Amino acid sequence: MSEVSGAIRTADEFEPNKATAMENTKISADKVQVYYGDTHAIKDVSINIRAQTVTAFIGPSGCGKSTFLRCLNRMNDTIDICRVEGRIAIDDEDIYDPKVDPVQLRAKVGMVFQKPNPFPKSIYDNVSYGPRIHGLVRRKSELDDIVASSLQKAGLWEEVKDRLDSPGTGLSGGQQQRLCIARAIAVSPEVILMDEPCSALDPIATAKVEELIDELRENYTIVIVTHSMQQAARVSQRTAFFHLGNLVEVGDTQDIFTNPRDKRTQDYITGRFG
Amino acid sequence: MALSFLLLTILVVAGLAYVLAKSRAFKSAGGDIRLLHSLPGYYGWNGALTVLLPTFLALLLWLAIQPVVVDHTVSGMISAESAAESTLGLVMSDVRRIADGLDLAVQNGVLTAQDASRLNTGSSDIRETLGAVGVALGAEVTAEKLEAAQTYRSATATGFWMRTVLVLLVALGGLAVSYRRTDKDFRARNFVEQVVKGILVFAALLAILTTVGIIFSLIFNTVEFFSLYPAEDFFFGLVWSPSFGGGSELGILPLIWATLYISLIALAVAVPVGLFAAIYLSEYASPTVRAVAKPLLEVLAGIPTIVYGLFALLTVGPLLVDIFGNDGALGVGWMQGGTAVMTAGLVMGIMLIPFVSSLSDDIINAVPQAMRDGSLGLGATHSETVKQVIMPAALPGIVGAILLAASRAIGETMIVVLGAGAAARLSMNPFDAMTTVTAKIVSQLTGDADFASPEALVAFALGMTLFVITLGLNIFALYIVRKYREQYD
Amino acid sequence: MTDVTLTTTPASEPARSKSLLEIDERTKKRNAAETRFKFYGIGAIGIGVFFLVALLVSILSNGLSAFTQTSISLPVPLVQSEIEAAEKSIVKTSKYRDIIGAVLIEKLKTAGVSTDMDSKKLLQIMSSGAPGALREFVLANPDAIGTTVPFDFLTSSRVDGYFKGRVTRAALAEDKNLDSAHLDIVDQLKEQGSVTSGFNWQFIFGSDASDSRPEQAGIGVAMVGSFYMMLVVLCLALPIGVAASIYLEEFAPKNRLTDVIEVNISNLAAVPSIVFGILGLAAFIQFAHLPQSAPLVGGLVLTLMTLPTIIISTRASLQSVPPSIRDAALGIGASKMQSVFHHVLPLAMPGILTGTIIGLAQALGETAPLLLIGMVGFIASEYPSGVFEGFLSPNSAMPAQIYEWAKRADPAFYERAWGGIIILLLFLMTMNIVAIILRRRFERRW
């Protein structure tokens, strides 16, 4: 983990109590390379992501943070020209092992996207979609329970409980994004990946979603890509800074923002570029 | 003056106007084109257009009005008895034929111009004279008709002279106006651009004109048909048996039934195949497969329908008889001849495959990628994503596409003319020969039928029905597709 | 539903396997369904391609034989007295037939082919158009009288079909027009090289022939008819279509009228072609008294039919020219009209031409409307007498000619119909390839 080439240093090197940190690791990536055709999009990234923690990926646009996020549940598989090398393991199982079915993986590692993308179906059908395709329920009543509890966890239940049959696309932007989070939760994932989940939302909706992320931390490992350093500081415990496809620095959010070790991190958080 | 010569004269005047206006503009600016409002060419065009536009307008009006006026004058000479014998229209067409024949005779030198205008029925056999120049006359040339024809000729000749004079006057007037108007401060470019814009508008309006033309040509003849044949018998009649001797039964229902039956079979072939092909091409196929398979399917769309018709008649029909016929492979004996609803439907289905697939392809591609990501991110397989997210999202668009395909199938002509048979029949057996609305339009209008008979006019009523059905389907389908597109724009 | 507890934690799921490396039953099933679904798609493409191949195979296998034709070479002595006698008789060609019959019998004698058939029966191996061809030659070359001229006469369609494998001896049993004995004769003549088969130029350049002479039928005159129609379509549809598109794309205000025009155009594109035929019949022939069967009228009808296609593709090419080009022109003081005609239109031209060619190809293959305005087969037996007469003299068109042959009962005409389709498709292919090349060569990505 600590053998990172050149200037790329993971913060684990500087971790005071490294042993306890390792125990808690949910996802570990080792020397991951991603290529888009001839473009080398992710260069040699190694990182440990802890369970029951919110980890934020920050960095200027085009730095590869979203690409790396999409590697974690193999969403990059859907892009023909994308190639991933290196090892990414969840609970010490290599997710790029040929025996792994991406369908099963994605049930374990849910994803919330930048733009709210509810299906053009009812709110109920949006949330029950995942449990149904994965066969998580045997009876309608069980499904009802999952839908209700997911919506409750996503903090949307009170707003929509009387109109579960109305289309999900009819909700406001913030509600739609929380619906998408409920949709992801309904599959009972262990990890939730969020790709700039608030970039299309207004400040009030953003605050609600951030609050929700903080609550979800109890049960899930959350990785969030964000453009906003303030948001990273507000919701995450750990922060990783990406720059030009390299992972520059990773550590406790507090440390990264108050005491960055790399010049580039410092320049970024002080607003020299970004 | 002959029309072509007249047109040439107008063009010469217009050219003259171009040169004159341009040089006058040049002079008014003292030879310095920087002082002109517009480029010199615009002054020239201004001149030419000022001549051309009013002249053509006058000429067109004259061409439209003169025959009406002449006809009116001449038909006044026809007595009520002879008009009653046959219709006035027939007498008039005889008169016109005689007049044309006389013109031709003069032109060929069989008659001199004086002789032609002095002819009378007593002195010579006009039928023979005209027969010699290749104009065959059906009915006897009565004195009355001949006189009418003479009047017709003189009126037309006078009209020609008046037309020439009028048009030339207008052209010269235009020349004078444009010359006087030309001056260095005159906004020639604005004027020319206005005219060009007018031409553009006219071109765009031609689309509406076409539709109006279609509607009028259908309505007039349909109304005439309904005056000869009761509308309720046409719309609710169960028998279609036209006989040119009279006593035809012209019920549209057997034709509508066959049309819908064939379209249904065609859609049953084209929709599943086309839809699955579209799904595969847009969701699964690698770029290479797509680059090969898509154009291959589209070749099917580029093949003319006559080819499909021949394919149905000579390949598919006999093949089906070999399977379903009396001595067929299955030994069921359902099929008596190669032409059948099944034959036409199957081949039409093949024709519609690329139509359905390329429309559906567009529509599936319009579903935002975010939908796919959302579903795949939840762990759905690709086919689950297609079936449960993409298809429901694309459904309105696909319904629109299927309706457009249905309208195509209903309006398709050559395949059914060659592949479906000629006998109208109300039958459930898809291996029976039946005939459709379009096939009957062709057969009723290509024979030697008299255009005034109900047997020929019925084609217009059939066309009207076809037009209304397909137009309704099209408007509805295009509306659905448009709404669908807006949803994701 | 109201009494919900948060019981569905990740740990409490029995159905799901814990490890990612083991695939559970349900996932296996789902993956099988996935594979099946994918195969449906491949199957659908396969069916489409299969039909295409079946269509092409049946066109080629049935049509290629139309491009060869069997003929029989006979040296005919043109005797002055015989020809004078023939020209004096009432049915002139029957005398010429006798001349050919005599020559044929003579030929068989010298070739050592024995037969007991009389001249009339023997002549059934020849095209019934042979005497006409002989007479035409004599009238055209009076100097040749007195000499012996070698002729290549067409054989009858059945003899031709026999050599092409279409007519079998068994099938002749019920045929009044030819016996097995005839075939024995032609077989022997073929061995001696008097009956040969060569490329069928007459099919490509000739005109349609009557029901009894399929061996003489050609598509050349119909091709000229099609050519004139395409000329009319090109000269009218291109400028009108471009003008209409420019107006709608660049000048039209967003109002009801524009909406109506746009809806109208997209609907016209979907109106059945036969309806345009009815329009042509009623408007151009009944109302405007234009001549029936004239390529000019056919061209007008096809123009109206292709206009929507051309307008739609032209608008797409105009749309693909970025607004910055227009702004640049307007910015240096060009008028709107100048910016369109000097900058936008030239840039959109390749796209417009591509669309026009595709519209023309569509028009070239259209049949139904032409039938209604009288452009059916067998309407013209010779080429138009002049360049301008071509627009107005009655003619057919390639697809209408093919339709005419498909309707006739003799299978020899079916071969002609398939052959005509090969020619038609060659034209369409060429046009489409030109369109593709244009698009590839000049396509500009902004």
Q: How would you describe this structure to a colleague?
A:
Chain A: It is a peripheral membrane protein. The complex is a heterotrimer of chains A (274), B (489) and C (446). By secondary structure, chain A is α/β, with parallel strands linked by helices. Chain A has helices at 18-23, 65-71, 102-108, 123-134, 140-153, 157-160, 173-185, 203-216, 229-235, 253-258, 263-269, and strands at 25-36, 39-50, 54-58, 82-90, 93-94, 109-112, 191-195, 221-225, 238-243, 246-252. Chain A has eleven helices and ten strands. In chain A, the strands form two sheets. Chain A has a six-stranded mixed sheet with strand order 6-7-8-3-9-10, sandwiched between helices. A four-stranded antiparallel sheet of chain A has the order 2-1-4-5. Chain B is 76% helix and 1% strand. Chain B has a two-stranded antiparallel ribbon. In chain B, helix 11 packs across helix 13. The two termini of chain B are 60 Å apart. In chain C, helix 3 (92-111) crosses helix 5 (130-140). Chain C folds into two domains: 70-199, no CATH class; 220-442, MetI-like fold, CATH 1.10.3720. At the B-C interface, helix 8, helix 10, helix 11, helix 12 and helix 13 of B face helix 1, helix 10, helix 11, helix 12 and helix 13 of C.
Named CATH topology of the largest domain in chain C: MetI-like fold
* Radius of gyration of chain C over all CA atoms, rounded: 32 Å
* Range of strand content of chain A: 15-25%
Number of helices of chain A: 11
Poorly predicted ranges of chain A (pLDDT <50, ≥5 residues)? 1-21
The helical percent of chain A reads: 25-40%
Measured between the Cα atoms of the first and last residue of chain A, the distance is: 28 Å
GO molecular function (chain B): phosphate transmembrane transporter activity
Protein name (chain B): Phosphate transport system permease protein
InterPro entries (chain B): MetI-like, MetI-like_sf, Phosphate_PstC, PstC_N
Family (chain B): Belongs to the binding-protein-dependent transport system permease family. CysTW subfamily.
